[in-house]
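We close this part of the discussion by returning to an individual protein. Part of our work consisted of pairing the sequence of a single chain with a tokenised description of its backbone. No coordinates are needed to read the tokens, only the vocabulary itself. The amino acid sequence and the backbone structure tokens for this protein are reproduced below:
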Amino acid sequence: MNTRHFFVLLGCMLGLAQLSAAQGVSYTGEAAVANVNVLGVLNASIEDTGPLPYYGGSLSTELLSLNVPNLLDLNLLSASTDGENRQTNSAASVTEVTLTAAGVNITASVLTSNASASCAPAVSGTSTIVGLKVNGLSVKVTGAPNQTIPLLVGSLIINEQISSVVDTPELVSADMLVNALHLKVLGIADVVISSSHAGVSCPVEVLQ
């Protein structure tokens, strides 16, 4: 990037920040294909957009495939987040997933998550889980939020959703986190596949 292009980009970013500040709207958003914490030794985010600037904008990342020996095999990884017009949308997706941790083997053909939050205030979130198997056995996905499969060594949460909506005379805010899969093995592993987070905060005066 040459100097001229740098200052053009900087000017655009400052313009967005000034516009958002004038409107009083603050955006939060992030998406990641995987968040992995195993034995406190491996602690990493995989194909993570990073946090959205408070003034909004758009972030995205893609990767053809990734393999972590004896732990993860992922294909067609993508994640994105954007905030504008008083709304934040985030999404993550991955195909042909294999996860092995603490003696648990999980496979899936497709895992996606979507989260959105607006100044209505309102939130929404969905997950798509296709071909899910745990230790070779097919799992029936109900589509309900926070479907939990007990395991001998922990639990697997399917379509995990955590949301918050605040509506006061001064401020409205909305926040939604959606994880397609969340494997918890106490003291050994905490792995999330396909995670999307969206949030927005709006002073009531800008909504009138």
Remarks:
- Residues 35 and 45 are 4 Å apart (CA to CA).
- Residues 25-207 form one domain.
